[in-house]
Amino acid sequence: MELNWYTSPEEADDSGGGATFASDVYRLGVLLFELFCSFETLEEKMRAMANLRYRVLPPQLLLKWPKEASFCQLMMHPVPDTRPKMSEVLQSEFLNQSRNSLEEREAALRLREEIEEQELLLDFLLQLQKRKQDIADNLQDTVAFLSSDINEVLHRQSALGQCGNFSIELDKEVSSGTVEDQSDCGSRKRFRPELHAVDMEEHSRSLEECSRTVPSSVVIQESVLSKSSRLMKNFKKLETAYFLARSKLARQVGNPLRSCDQVVKRTTGSAVGTEGSSIDDFALEGHSGRRQGGWMNSFLEGLCRYLSFSQLKVRAELKQCDLLNSSNLVCSVGFDRDNEFFATAGVNKKIKVFEYNMIVNEHRDIHYPVVEMSNKSKLSCISWNSYMKSHIASSDFDGLVQVWDVTRSQVFVEMREHERRVWSVDFSLADPTKLAGSVGTIRTRANVCSVQFQPDSARSIAIGSADHKIYCYDLRNIRAPYCTLVGHTKTVSYVKYVDASTIVSGSTDNSLKLWDLSTNQARVIDNPVQTFTGHTNTKNFVGLSISDGYIATGSETNEVFVYHKAFPMPVLAYKFNVTDPISGQEIDDQSQFISCVCWRGQSSTLLSANSSGNIKVLEMD
């Protein structure tokens, strides 16, 4: 059918003539007609193509494409010689006009594409410039307040140097007997002849303290060099801690560049000078008469605490006759009210009480407890009463909570409130008659792994839960927690109060977290102040203890780690040595782990035990 449409009149005759250039022009006219004329149905197209043989074109083509319709009729003329030659077709106004329009359209499209590409490039460059400018502005601000802080430290250094020179000159004058007033590192005392010997002795001690507080430049340089390597190893983390402290200041005062002038609150316990001395006052006194850089004191204190100790050394090791017993895992250790005795408890179903000085000062082959009390079940936790020196509470695997009288070696209170293992027990420091578990029943959806009273209140407790959260309850309303801390990804095995508004939590997600309850009044807090990492803890209870800002925890690598609350990386670490009983050589037993730790009050002495029952007294040195 289509072959008939494209057959010219002369080819349709029976003359037997073949295709010619004129017949090709005819076919080109038919093709042009099909291109410009569309049909909805095949029947409609068949009718139109049949009419085309007689050069009858559809009205819509004549109206819409008049030039194209006229050119089609010319190419389909029944007389071959009347049709235009191919050269004439190529040079016709119709084709040339279309070609020019097409070229113009293509050129316009190319121009539009180039404009769009240039706009995209310009937008990218502007966005990049804005981001880099923001970075540059931030960097400029950073450099500005770094310069401000450097100037503040240089000012303090200069002030301390003046105080040091003043002390040295005063020392020379006193030695020559030219002054009547003596300086006790800034504290003035009137000289009296009858007290000459005593005052000179006190003065010598004071100057010795001053020499430690304000050492010579050589000593300072040696000290700085000795600690520089520790700083460089953790430079990135220290940098993060510095900027974190600075950002808190910026939020408080609203202008980071004038922070040193606006923050005037002095941080207690600053390492700048001796407490109570005039050195600290003189160094912190600005030209305007106000104390400056309170936040810097806090950061400096944390930095000094971080660098104060270089190792954990073994001061004593508790040697027991049943050390090789397979069921000698120590689950809990703790010191009594006066830090004279400490107790251990664990899976051997015994509470053993040892005298601390005897363990530390007397070197014996075997250390025996001064008191040993047996329980019917394995023990999970112990807690000394802060008021009654001889009272100690325990919790066990059967859910029993008991209070023991150590002097009588017997139980005098028994509480069977729980149906399953009690992981943790705690006496209130504020009210020694309150024991967690005896003041009420708090229903939780998951297992409770740790509990502790707020240090200055018997009404608030914190709970570490197996559902990865920490709950803070007011015991006057135990239906719902007043605050929930969210951030751990696995079971929270420990919660400890650093102070009334700060909590440290330990989890089997290999981290400890520091929470500040005072900065957020919301019922849910999901932004810990600090996250401490470095130890390994994925499945076991490894212990947690707090002392004067230092945080001790165990590790499943059989190591003890010590952090300071100001920085996320460990300050110190100590690995328990495992000795092969046959060869006597040290081996790496990956099955052993640190099971509990406990500071001796607010001191640098740490009691730690591992899963084999090995107990050591460690000292930060």
TrEMBL record:
Pfam family, one: WD40
UniProt-listed GO biological process terms: photomorphogenesis
InterPro entries: Kinase-like_dom_sf (IPR011009), Prot_kinase_dom (IPR000719), SPA1/2/3/4 (IPR044630), WD40/YVTN_repeat-like_dom_sf (IPR015943), WD40_repeat_CS (IPR019775), WD40_repeat_dom_sf (IPR036322), WD40_rpt (IPR001680)
Molecular function per GO: ATP binding; protein kinase activity
Organism classification: Eukaryota, Viridiplantae, Streptophyta, Embryophyta, Tracheophyta
Name of protein: Protein kinase domain-containing protein
Entry superkingdom: Eukaryota
PROSITE patterns with a match to the protein in the record: PROTEIN_KINASE_DOM, WD_REPEATS_1, WD_REPEATS_2, WD_REPEATS_REGION
Alphabetic keyword roster: Coiled coil, Repeat, WD repeat
Residues of the Protein kinase domain: 1-95
Coiled coil regions in record: 98-128
Organism this protein belongs to: Triticum aestivum
Sequence ranges of the WD repeats: 372-414, 485-525
